[in-house]
Amino acid sequence: MRPQPSDAPPGATAPEARPGRSRHAATRWGSPATPDRDPHPPAAGPSAPAADAARAAPPQAGPRPRARDRYFDLLRAIALFRVVFYHLMGWAWLPVVFPSMGVMFALAGNLMARSLAKRPAAAVIRGRVRRLLPPLWLLGAIGVSGMLLGGWGPEDGEAHPVGWWLHLVFWILPVSDPPYGEGLPGVHGLLGEDWTAAMGVPLWYLRAYLWFVFLSPLLLRALRAAPWPTVLAPIALSAALEYGPLSVPYWRVDSALSDMGAFGACWLLGMAHQQGVLRRVPRYAVLSLAPAVGAAGLWHALSDGLRQGHDLDDMPFAQSLWSFATVLLLLHISPAWQEWPRRLGRWDGLITLLNSRAVTIYLWHNVCIVLAESLWDHLWDVPALETHAAWLLQSPWPQLPLVWLLTALCVLCFGWTEDLAASRTPRLWPTGDPGAHRSR
Description:
mainly alpha, disordered N terminus, globular
């Protein structure tokens, strides 16, 4: 990976980031409901029976919200779960099995295109930014305050300490990676030394997401004019950064361009799906192109030494190819469920919860992992366990339920900010339709 200065998080993804391992980590979120007119208006007529029937009929409910695409909800829930699982386990093959970051960018691009088709660009961008920032501000208020209390500040001998304070603005509007207190000690045996990275590193996703949002009106215009050259342009950008024709000396710009190259094609595929571009591609073409591109990405990753601690997160070009191929297949076969298939109906509450609290889960799950690992380490102080069950203490599997329990507590404590940001009535545990709880 490219070295970064001390105020740079070790990652802005080349996808996700496990604290202390790589600089990327994962999502997006929610789909606004859209009204749909009643296809059966009452018939007009002067006859008495018709009038009596009209009086006896229940009143018209008015515009009804458009049904959510449950297939997209399922993909988003799987992507989010895989991100948490990967950051705990750290297995290099997990991003290959399911490239969560590419999938989440594609879903966000689809929603962005749908919104831009119905509302002015400025209003759409303002709404997307408004939904994203309040959960981040709450994380920053807690995390940055803790870092400052722990002694974080401008380094000794730093030429421009004012610049350090100005960089804290990125915790308010993350158009670049915000600094964090790297190297601070843990917190009273509860949080390990990497708790600051657990808060700062995942914000690469918010930065990349914001730039995609800002650029979406232009991307949509280019997509309509030249669909496939526009979709493939980010992969060309990633190749130029990988093989040298394009070199950017400033790490902040380099990180932004790297993530744009790695995931821009996925965002554009989501927009192309909403615009109907993918429906015009013959099935045989998709089933031929996607495996070939995916094989090229996998070959590139394997030749670069794919292993734990060095995976697709550190290989932007391989990431761009593999994510593009996977997303192309997933979107091309999209069944567009408005209701769950019978076997998936039982998971409706859980999937709805993961979708409704995706930002909160993403922002806080790394901290929950650090806390779970720190608490689990205390079991080494039990002599019987250390002597007879060292294999259990070394395994991350028993920590998985604890991580999700702590994440659920974060959902209860902090998730209400997502409702406020989306102009919904705050709820502690949203397992129902979020559109049914609008406050204004």
